[in-house]
Amino acid sequence: MTPFPQRLFCDTSFFYACLDPKDRNHEMALALLTEAQVVEARFYTTWDIVSETVTLLRYRKNYQTAKRFLVDIKPSLHIVWHGDGVHQEAEEIFCKFGNERRLSFCDSISCVVVTTLLDHMPCLAFDEDFRKLGLTIIFP
Asked: Could you give phi then psi for residue 45, rounded to 5 degrees?
């Protein structure tokens, strides 16, 4: 059995599933979170995902849950800074795959960040597009 990674890239789908008990992936997200805590894993993400997560929590849950994410969870995250080069590559990925896969632009950015800046770091995501883009997804 492969040891649980100590560095993980987190997608909105993971954060949302952790915070919404009604999400179909909630129990799996909490199991992954528990495993990550055991190995003291570090969570990486982007401002794009923080923005997407807060917006989704605000619209689908409520203001308090969105604020809780910002106040209680965001400070423990390693936010990966990226520049215009990442946006340029993300545009290319989006234009190439976005129509057939309903790919979000945020997922395109995540793909570039994970593959170029984070050396193909494993991801915590329930978004099938991550796997289709060739990213490594962690499941319990």
From this structure: -160, -175
Structure tokens at 76: 């423990």
Q: Where are the domains of the chain?
A: 7-82+121-132
Alpha-carbon span 7 to 127, nearest angstrom: 19
Q: State both tokens at 27.
A: 């129990």
What backbone phi and psi angles, to 5 degrees, belong to 37? -65, -35
What is the homologous superfamily of the domain 7-82+121-132 according to CATH?
5'-nuclease (3.40.50.1010)
Is the pTM for the entire model greater than 0.90?
yes
Contact 13, 126 (CB under 8 A): yes
Q: How many CA atoms lie within 13 A of 16 on its CB side?
A: 24
pLDDT digits (tens, 9 = 90+) for 82-133: 988 999 999 999 999 877 877 889 999 999 999 999 999 999 999 888 888 8
Q: What number of residues does the chain have?
A: 140
Q: Alpha helices, DSSP H only, in 1-140?
A: 12-19, 26-38, 47-60, 63-68, 84-101, 105-112, 128-132
pLDDT of residue 139: 75
